[in-house]
Amino acid sequence: MIELTPLARPYAKALFASALESNNLDEMANELKIIATASKTDGVKNTIENPALSRKDVVDILIKLFEESASNTSKKLIEVLAENKRLNLLEPIYSIYQALLEKHKEQNSIQVFVAVEPGNEAKESIEEKLRLTYGKDANIYFSKDPKMMGGLSIKIGDETLDLSIRGKVNKLVNQLNF
User: What 3-state DSSP class applies to 140?
Assistant: First the structure.
């Protein structure tokens, strides 16, 4: 499978520069989040990949779909991506844009991997402890990873703190094998 990040980076940087210039960084992030989330749904995927539809038809359908939530900049992005046959980049563009936004705001992005979705109280406790350590404006994202068996793993930048059962088992196996 082809790595989409290098292809998406120029689009995300251009959007970020445009949003910075027009002072609507957060609004653009929200629009991109909506568009990226929608692009993962089966209906939108099928529309994008439908060989019977022309690129103009796909653009018209997507712009109509995002009419309420998308600015002219986002609509132009959809047009450019369709013209370049790059509509599959919507999700990576959002991820890169979000990283640029966090860097600009000097925020930490923290990814918490859990085996099962924690309850609200546990989630709030984890978020509170992470914000005390990494700043109250840190962005914390939870992702499910059933392979962990239990516990959690926290990724901040290129550092990972593995408190999962799978991590402990792997550590024990490595110690036994020398």
Answer: strand
114 sits in which H/E element: strand 109-114
> C-alpha angle 70/74/55, rounded to 5°?
105
Distances (CA, A) of 163 to 24, 55, 127, 151: 38, 47, 16, 6
* Exposed / middle / buried, residue 1 (Cβ in 10 Å: 0-12, 13-18, 19+): exposed
Model pLDDT for residues 136-150, shown as the tens digit of each residue: 888 888 888 888 888
List phi, psi (to 5°) of 85: 55, 50
Length of the chain: 178
Residue 55 has pLDDT above 70, yes or no: yes
CB 11 within 8 A of CB 89: yes
Q: Which two tokens stand for residue 164?
A: 């999962």
